[in-house]
Amino acid sequence: MANNLDSNITNKVARIFLKEFEASKVLCKTVNTSLLTPEFTPQFGETVRFKRPHQYRSTETVDGDLTAVNKNDITSGSAPATVQNYITVPIDWTNREEALELDQLAEIIRPAAQECVTKLETNLGKFMTANLGLHNGTVGTAISKWGDVASNQSLMQSIGVPMSGEKYAVMNPFAIQALADTQSGLASGDNNLVNTAWMDAQISRNFGGLRGLTSNALPATQLGELAGATGTISATPDGTYLTAKDSMTQSVTLTGLTASTVGAVRAGDTIEITQADRSRLNVMTREIAFDQTGQIKWTYKVVTGGDTDGGGSVTITVAAAAINETDGQYNNISNPIQAGDTFEILGTAALSTQASLFYHKDAIGLGTIRLPKLHTWDTVIESSDGFSIRVTKYSDGDANKQSIRFDLLPTFSVLNPQFGGTFWGA
Fold it and tell me: Which of 62, 94, 209, 279 could cross-link with 334 by S-S, CB 3.0 to 4.6 Å?
C-alpha cells in the first residue's frame, strides 16, 4: 500500500522548519519578544497599544511640608505596536515523497526558513534604524576600534538607560576585520558540532557592557541632499509630554536651507542642535549628561523627511521628542528647543552609508500574530520565544499542482526610542 503523507506531512515539515528558523535568527534574539506576542490576536486589528512606564520626580523640603510643592501627575502614555505585511515563502510540493523517505527534508526546508528569517530581520533592521532616537560617532565613518563600540555603553549610561538587561551593538560583518586586532575582546567558539547563526554572529559577548554582533540585516541608507547644511528652527516645537506620550516623536520645522530641494532631509538623517545649552539630561537624575568632550548635545533622528519649499523650509517628524516642562517630571533636555535655535544636518550630502545599531533589549518590541488555520492540511507552530508560524499544504485542482506555504505575520513597536540609536566610527 502506498504511503499517505497528507495526514502528517505538515507536522513533520513544521518541526524541521522551526528548527531551521531558530538556528537562523540573530537580530530577532536581541529585542523584546515577550511583550507583544501574547497580546496580539486577529481580533485586535492593525494596532495594539502598550502602556509606557511612568516617570516621577522627587522633591526636597526642610520640614516635609508639601503644601506649595507641585505633585507628580499620572499621565499614561502608550506605545503602538503595528502589524506589518505577511511574510510568506511558497513552494511547489510535487513528488516529494521520495525525498522525505530519504531523509532529505531538512535540505529542502532549510532555505525556506532562512529566507523567512532574512526578510523578517531585514525589515526589523530598517524599522530600528529609522526609529531609534540616539546618535553616536561621526556619520559615514567606518568603525575602526573597540572604543567606537564601547562609547555606546557610556552614552547610554550617561543619559540614564537602565544598566540592567541586555544591551547590544550590531555591526556590518566587516567590523570583524576592523576589530580583529584586539583578540582579547573577541568571542571564543563553543564546542558545538553545528553553530547557529546567533553563535556565528557574535564578535564579543561583553565588551564595555555590550554584546557585539554582526548582521546582514542592517539597511543601506542614503543621507539627505542637504546633509552637512546648517540652519535654524523656525518655530518652537511642542515640548510637552502630553503631546508626545504616545508616539514619542515631535514635529520640527527647519529653515535657512537651500530652497526647493528634492530629498532635502531623508528618514534616518541626524539633526544635531548646536544651540548652546540644549543638552541631554540623565532621565534618572535629571542632571546634565556629559561625555569626554563636554555636555552631550541633543540630536534628533529623522523619522519622516521632506523637500524644502521655495523659502528653504521643511517640516519633518523626528524621534525622540525633546521634553522640557516646568515640573520636570518627564524632562530629557536641559532647556526647551525654541524658534531661532541653530542646527546642523550631520553627514555628507546624498552619501550612501550603513549605520550600526546600539540598543537596550527593551528599546524595540517584536511579536507575531497567531494566524487562523485554513481549510486544508496545516499546522501552526510556535518557537520558545513566541514566534507563531503557519505551515499549510494545499493543492490547485485545475493546475494539477500541490504546494506548501510558510506564513509569518510580525508586529513591530518602538517601546522607548531613547534606549538605542545608530552609531559610526569616531
Answer: 279
pLDDT tens for each residue of 388-424: 898 888 877 777 777 888 999 898 988 889 999 999 9
Residue 58 has pLDDT above 70, yes or no: no
For residue 336, the one-letter residue type is P
Please state, in angstroms and rounded to a whole number, the distance separating the CA atoms of residues 331 and 139.
27
Report DSSP letters for 110-177, one per residue: HHHHHHHHHHHHHHHHHHHHHH--EEES-TTPPP-SHHHHHHHHHHHHHTT--SSS-EEEEE-TTHHH
Phi, psi dihedral angles at 296 (to 5 degrees): -80, 120
Amino acid found at 416 = N
Cβ-based neighbours of 107, under 8 Å, separated by 6 or more: none
Residue 27 DSSP one-character state: G
Tell me, letter by letter, the H, E, C secondary structure of 261-280.
CCCCECCCCEEEECCCCCEE
Query: 87-105: string of b/e by CB count within 10 Å (b at 16+)?
Result: bebebebeebeeeeeeeeb
Between the CA atoms of 185, 187, 188 and 192, what dihedral angle is there, to the nearest 10 degrees? 180
Contacts with 116 (C-beta within 8 Å, 6 or more apart), sequence order? 21, 87, 89, 389, 406, 408
Q: Highest-confidence range of 4-8, 244-248, 281-285, 335-339, by mean pLDDT?
A: 335-339
Largest CA distance in the chain: 91
Phi, psi values for residue 371, rounded to 5°: -80, 140
Question: Exposure pattern of 251-268 as b/e (b: 16+ CB <10 Å)?
Answer: ebbbbbbeeebebbbbbb
Residue 225: CB partners within 8 Å, gap ≥ 6? 261, 262, 263, 264, 349, 350
3-class state of residue 60 by DSSP = coil
The angle, 0 to 180 degrees and rounded to 10, between the axes of the packed helices 105-131 and 9-24 is: 50
